[in-house]
Amino acid sequence: MPAPPRSVRRILVILLALAVLGLPTGWITRAATLASLTTESTPQALQNNDQPETDPAAALLQQGITLLDKKNAGGAIAVLERAVALAPDLVEAHYQLGQAFEDVHESRRAITEYETVSTLSPDHLDAQFRLGLLYAQQEDPSQAIQPFSAILRANPQHQSARYNLGLVLKKVGRPDQAQRHFELVLAQNPSHAGAHTNLGNIWHDKQDLQRAIAEYRAALLHTPDHLMARRNLAMVLLEQGDEDGALAEYARAIALHHGDPVLHAEYAALLRQAGHTSEAEREYRQALAHLPLTPEQSDRRTQIEVGLREIYASQSTQ
After folding, report:
1. How far is it, in rounded angstroms, from Cα 86 to Cα 99?
2. What's the pLDDT at 318?
């Protein structure tokens, strides 16, 4: 058996001296036991000033996080996959791997990792939130209802989860439930432009145009460059026969979002309908100038070119 450390030997010498002085034996026994435990509980590696070995999975996790911070998602994936192979229950490694897969647009693999996190740690709200957002983009967005609802059970004040739950409920045909969630978001944050706009859309679908207009205007009061609110307000005004009001809203939208080809094309069509052919021609040309030359945009390009040809034809007959 190795000799006790020098500090412990000093304690024993002091105890012997106290015994000679008449200290109660109970005190001496407890102190001696403590000295003995101190000696026995010190790992040999630490007595020899050796450092304990680092957990290899934890080290790989830290390396993966560093790579993600450096925008090296591919490298992070390789490292984090090794981490979860070594430690399948390492929750944060699965979560960071999910984020890495999102960065390289592999949503299905990201979903698998977030599902693993949710199984291992149901209270991991960040994983639940990411899972809800990805589910909402799939063919069956109703899957997103469960994770967003789980977040709200744990934290009813989670505004982003409530707002996104409202979006999903509206998308799957449950507008009344969606409306309730948007109203609760606005109770927390009256300036939430997205909630105002989506409430406006629900009122529009219910043919309550005045309430729709009120919600769009509330969204624009807080966020003047909110394109969806501005465009939808113009469309509702047009439905009401307020052509001038609709044109004014489109003009404001163009001023804030100049270069949006879809917006320019819509504004051109409205100007043409109102008889402002020269302004319509200008907007059609702006739309063509900013429209990407991709196969996906070929139909839209054809529509714009048809609009221009019709303007030229009408001018030639005048």
Report:
1. 19
2. 66
- Domain residue limits, the chain: 56-154, 191-257, 260-317
And the tokens for 80?
A: 């984090």
pLDDT for residue 51: 42
Tokens in use for 166?
A: 């409202």
CA distance 72 to 100: 9
pTM of structure: 0.78
Q: Does domain 56-154 have CATH number 3.40.50.80?
A: no
Backbone angles phi, psi at 105, to 5 degrees: 65, 35
Give the model's pLDDT for residue 54. 72
- What's phi and psi for 287, nearest 5 deg? -60, -45
Amino acid making up residue 22: G
CA angle 105, 110, 111 (to 5 degrees): 125
- Cβ atoms 240, 279 nearer than 8 A: no
Q: Do domains 56-154 and 191-257 have the same CATH topology?
A: yes
3-state secondary structure of 43: coil
Q: What digits encode the pLDDT tens for the residues 81-102? A: 999 999 999 999 999 999 999 9
Q: 191-257 belongs to which homologous superfamily?
A: Tetratricopeptide repeat domain (1.25.40.10)
